[in-house]
Protein 1
Amino acid sequence: MTETANFEDTISKLQAQRGICTFPALDHAEARKIGAAVARLAEAAEHPVAIAVFLGEQRVFHVAFAGTTAEHDDWLRRKRNTVLRHDAPSLEVALQYRVSGRNPDWLDPREFAVAGGALPLRVGDNLVGVVAVSGLTNSMSADHDLVIEALASLER
């Protein structure tokens, strides 16, 4: 199987995960629960990550574990911008660019990070927030996978 086929399979899996990012309602308390779920998993695994949850323009949750710097916070911001710009998980955006063979050089790297780790939060079809993780470098999908695991653990 080619690298492109592997990426295409992964994109299909990411699109199948969209339901896990959809909530019947999402307020500040629920957004903080999302952040806390990600933080519990990260802390238990001793992951050096920064985590942020946004509702609209407001950051309603943020935590940074040992081993992170302000640079991780900037990655959170830029990954969030990628989600908002493309209305898709940042990992999906990164993989789509790889499959297409195009370099997204029209996206200002000071404002956008084409890397995994930020996912849209939806109420119905409406994009209402973003959850983002930065810090895991062992694979292209590690930050994304941490968020998915946390979202799957939540009671709905």
Note: The CA atoms of residues 23 and 123 lie 5 Å apart.
Protein 2
Amino acid sequence: MKTLKKLPFLVFTILFIFGCETKPKQITQKADYEKYLTLKDNKSVTFAQNEIDFWQKKFDAAPNQISYLSLIASNYSTLFEYTGNIKNLYKTEELLTKSNEAYDYSKVSTIRSLARNYISQHRFKEALTLANKALAIGEGKKETQKLLFDVQMELGNYAEAVKNLNAIRDMNDFDFLIRLAKWNDHKGDLKTAITFMEKARTIAEKENNKVLKIWSYSNLGDFYGHAGKIQESYDSYLKTLALDPNYSYALKGIAWIIFSKERNSNEANRIIDAITSRHNTPDFYLLKSHIAQFEANKSEEIKNKNAYFSMLKNNNYGAMYNKYNVLVYADDKQSASKALEIAKIEVNHRPTPDSYDLLAWSYLNIGQNKKALEIAQNHVVGKSHEPKVQYHLAMIYKANNLAQKVIPIKEELSSSLYELGPNFDKKVNQL
């Protein structure tokens, strides 16, 4: 009988130990990032504005000095990077176009700069035209081939992208390694992608190149997150911020860890609010909308969604938010036909597997299940490893009574819940 009396205590002890073991580990600490939320100034922005003033005065005094235009343009590009203000991106384009026209599109570096501006605007076909123009001139061929790889990847011309990647092959070159990492990530080999990105980081550290270190740390933050290495992801974002306290992308990465891994909506929102006070882009409203959805706060969810669309309406973002728009519109049966219209435009802009996924998803949401399946089978299956694309694929299979095809995707998605976010927990379980 004495043994029986001890049993509840043993059960309690086992449950207590088990409970302690399964409680998610706290990764983030306010003390690590608090100072980056309350910055009073941005040295990069101040420097860029001073440079613009300086070179603009010189250009006004000597309008025949065309080289000044590119210098002014690069500083407007910096302003766009740090503030998110789309007007700065368009000002960069205007200055680079003027410069290229003055040179009669003969200066390769200026052509490439305009092509990169077009990439930022999601004007990929125009970027490709310029990249090919630069290649035809022939000067600085390797730099042009790097640009061509980037554009071809955006357009889904993967065979052409690989040709350009092989043409710049050099295992000791930072630019080659980060593109090799991107290629392996595209193929779904994240482990190899991380290995090459780490090699690139080592080069950046050996050269003590601040710009390259920031780039490699922030991208490794993403890669580690996708691989479920959340501590490493967090550490990489902190390293980025230590070098550039105003690098809002890294703060956004930390906000995602706090939301998706630690499920702390209030703290994630606090960080996002701090970011948007100095770097304001529409996607932050969508993130706040997702957080509100997780909190089952319908009014906040709608309020932030409306703020997102209001910002799009008040600023001309061109095709930059097409993907987001499709996903938002497709979620609501009343606006699903709008999603389809935009998805068709996106496929025309960049016929990648991810764009075709948006098209298939839109057809599914207007009830054309067979059409969705046909597009997915022809253009998506085996060609994209993005978790959201895989979820859409599973839903398309489910709608077409192909339950056996859903099972392996569901298993795979279970390990991608951090990347997908908390709102997908239930969705994946219901597959």
Note: Confidence is low (pLDDT under 50) at residues 1-23.
Protein 3
Amino acid sequence: MNLNQVTLPVHNMPQAVEFYQVLGFKLIVDTPHYARFECPTGGSSFSLSLETETFKNGAAIYFEHKELDEWVEQLVAKGIQFEQLPTMERYLWKEAILIDPSNNKIKLYWAGENRLNPPWRVN
């Protein structure tokens, strides 16, 4: 089994598409109500779905990048604002946090071996 994609709700599709393209994702489906992106490496994808009703999304989506610090520096230079710059967390992941234009929480991170094999992994 493999995870295919995660779909985020958005209020403004053109604004959301532009935001994720600035982050570096490749737009592969573009309609007024749905957009899908391919991640630059790894073969994963995610999508956006236009919501006309008010929503609150409590989920966070994580995007992994080995060169996290450099990626964040590039995004800051492009005007992306972060709630948290790269910080080593107690669970051994280095994370940066930002909020997309529709108030979805996005975490950019690098965990290396700890992503799937933390010291407390259950066997």
Note: The chain is about 15% helix and 35% strand.
